[in-house]
Amino acid sequence: MQLSDRITGINAGGSDGWGIYIKARDMERAGQKVIHLTIGEHDVRTDRTILDAMHAATLAGHTGYSFGSGSPGLRERIARRVSERTGVTTTPDNVLVVPGGQAGLFATHMAACDPGDRALFIDPYYATYPGTIRSVGARPVPVLARAERMFQPDAADIAAAAGDGAASLLINSPNNPTGVAYSQETMEGIARTCQDHDLWLISDEVYDTQLWHGRHITPRALPGMAERTLVIGSLSKSHAMTGSRIGWVVGPEEALEHMGHLATNTTYGVAGFVQEAASFALDQGEGFETTIAAPFRRRRDLVLRLLDGQNVVRPIPPDGTMYVMLDIRATGLSGEAFAEALLDKHHVAVMPGESFGKAAAGHLRVALTVDDAQLEEAMRLLLALAAERAG
């Protein structure tokens, strides 16, 4: 039987970018100790109080079908959170509850793109972006954010890629993998370009609570952008709820109404007991979110201190997220070759920059997702290997 071109073409016949992660897991299953600095998975699990709320909701009977745009209570709670934090008036009709940020990426591109449309995204990018775009039948078009500009996208580059007929632009700030938060100037340039070229702007903001410098800027708050911006949010990073698969899309009411029909015909909603737990989690306030984010800020500072006094490995100063991106081009190795050598020799797993696009070639992404002692050990091994190869 012949499979569809759409399903066989999700990765365009290439790698999905997760080779090092899979190899590290295989090594661990074979009995080898590996320090995993690959994926954005918290080293602490979901707080017990949230799990208790989820359990109570289960016992209270929130176990039936939950199709539609989400429970009224959770949509109201998300709308209030977004209004308070962004200054943009947001109602429950502007909110769609989805099973995690990844589902939000799919739903927003389904809303913005017809089959064959060109969908722009910034490179470096989270590894699923091009595959998600292909999954909806659109054509992914990367726009390079160059290292010499500290990975801030250039509006002129976006405009050149948009040409006459691109449908959407996907951005992510604070950015995975670079840790860079887009500046006011960058966001204004993006907004201006989207208006000039009639682009939908899809803004992945799942790291909005992990910001170490400046303030979070959502393009939805910029003049003329609320009607053309779809924002993706999630509790995965802010509340260490990665496995609960709970997130949202915020945008214009008409778009969200149609995306609700998509949800009914794909996921059939998010489990009611998970939605109840999400409402409870959001009610814990910003102090709770600050506590979840604190280890990553501390570990960011730890890594930067370890990098002082040497000039082989250069950090991209991270404004936020749970990652630090390292420039290892002085070693003469690609990111892929260095990551393979580090895993084979020292059993430390990091993601090569090439997993996140051409602009990140010659870099590594280090996830700050192990305790401080393991992180320090891993970084010392990484720096020793870099000095050896550079020498």
From TrEMBL:
Alphabetic keyword roster: Aminotransferase, Pyridoxal phosphate, Transferase
Aminotransferase class I/classII large domain location is 33-380
Which Gene Ontology terms cover its molecular function?
A: L-aspartate:2-oxoglutarate aminotransferase activity; pyridoxal phosphate binding
Q: Kindly give the InterPro entries that the UniProt entry links to this protein.
A: Aminotransferase_I/II_large, AspAT/PAT-like, NHTrfase_class1_PyrdxlP-BS, PyrdxlP-dep_Trfase, PyrdxlP-dep_Trfase_major
The record's section on SUPFAM superfamilies has: PLP-dependent transferases
The chemistry this enzyme catalyses reads: L-aspartate + 2-oxoglutarate = oxaloacetate + L-glutamate
Q: Which cofactor does it need?
A: pyridoxal 5'-phosphate
Annotated GO biological process: amino acid metabolic process
Enzyme Commission identifier(s): 2.6.1.-
Q: Which CDD domains match?
A: AAT_like
- Top-rank taxon of the source lineage equals Bacteria
What does the sequence similarity comment in the record state about its family?
Belongs to the class-I pyridoxal-phosphate-dependent aminotransferase family.
Q: Which PANTHER family match?
A: ASPARTATE AMINOTRANSFERASE
What name is this protein filed under? Aminotransferase
